[in-house]
Fold each of these.
Amino acid sequence: MVYSDSDWAGSVDDIKNTSGYAFTLHSDMFSWNSKKQEVVAQSFSEKEYIASGDTTNQALWLRKNLCDF
């Protein structure tokens, strides 16, 4: 299961969004991250696309490395 989310201009200093994701297998979380987005999103949809892109990149990386075992 994968969870992904972002906030809207959560940093009052530079109005950048924070996005994060969490990957679980059964009930165990095995990969997670939370970070400030590098760009200032101009819309609600844009910030979600950025968060989804980060999550997809991590999913592809996990898939590649887990398939090597």
Amino acid sequence: MEEIFARGGPVVWVLAGYSLLGLTVVVERVIRFMGAGRLPREMEARLAERGAPETLRSTLSTVRGPEANLLWAVLDAHSQGAPDLERVASRVGSTELQRLQRGFRTLSMLGNTAPLLGLFGTILGMIKAFQVIERAGGRVDADALAGGIWEAMVTTGVGLAVSLVLLLLLHLLEGLAERRARSMERCGSILLERLGAPELHPRHALGTRRQEAADAA
């Protein structure tokens, strides 16, 4: 490892910074997902039960997380006589999804530019190797030339490794966010149906805003 940093030069150190920043984002997101409580399945079933909607408030008082925030917003809007509960649910769901996807753009940028940065380091290394050949008048020891090329290729290898890890972790986090989005849609639709409002279809509400939320992350 020390040899890689020694031979890779400044580019490898920058890629190490990429890794540190990316892993920091991943750890923060994992903590965020773990801290965002889920709505138990039995509570989802109780959402569809008959009765005054206000009875749900006591049920939701002990629950935290994106689903609970969406349901609270819809119940508050209903108690205030808001005419378009679906829009309220869509707006709150989009906000919660943006919170879940915060940092995704940073991970995407790091993962996509790491190979290019590694290639840039390789090109710089090859330029130095050919400068050595030029100064030697074309008479260069093959072992020395091979060593120079090896050093130049280090940055490409490191860049690809960093990119692979960060993009894989990003894909896993996107899967977690997608599952929470579907959970919000399901809970919102159940409550809206109980309140007599149109269901929160993914095509019309959260689903149409997922890309916007990802772009804003």
Amino acid sequence: MNPFSLLKHAGALSCLTLLPLSALAQAPAAAPTAPPAATTEKPQDAVSLDEIKRFVAVFRAVKAGYVDPIDDKTLMRAAIRGLLLDLDPHSAYLDADQSQALNEAASGAYDGLGLEVVQQ
């Protein structure tokens, strides 16, 4: 038996054709794009795996052999400070307290005092 023979009403047939079209209307406007193809070229400034392994080896050696016990967070902050210190005399790593102090000194606003210093 033909399934469409049961449909006596022309509107029912148009309803059936609109259902698949309405499903298409709800599809995303842009299909997801494939990730860019992996290139075999290595950027000139990329850090090699050997250099990363060397950093980890030094990190572990300092942690294990330093005269005083040192935690990973302190050691990592020291490594970051050293990285920036070696760039130029104007670059520095600031922790949250140091950053807040610098921002207060630079902006002229001081939290907790209810005043602001403005140059006129």
Amino acid sequence: MIGRSTIWELRHGGGNATHPVHIHLVDFQVLSRTGGRNAVSSYEAAGMKDVVWIAPNETVRVVARYAPWDGVYMFHCHNLVHEDHDMLVAFNVTQLEKWGYDSETHFIDPMEPAFRPKNVVPEDYTDEAVKRKIEWFWGTNAYNRTSIVKRVGRNLMAISSSA
């Protein structure tokens, strides 16, 4: 993965339900379908997606670029019953030196205490507490790479246009 385009095969292994599979934080291009419709629909070919429907016994090939954000990504079925029964997976694309991410923490571990849910207390909603939280978020530098984000967006559109 590490910041380059990667082709995935998403396979529906059985059962009668269709699966709307959603990959977080990326848009992807649907390349092919086999074992079901055997064709990419015109609306799928027209642009980038973040959800793809997978029919019983079907394999869908997609291409995605996991950048510029390092760390943990997630994909899951949007049928909540399926999601609740293990159709939700996280995967780590690790640190991306090429994109300017070094050994600093950039949201790599979603279970890091700073990002875990906390009990709600009224003191957290005072003007001063909100100001401190905003300053803390700003200090994480989560949005300091806008030029990279724009470049990745242009590259994704180039991938979509060339297919």
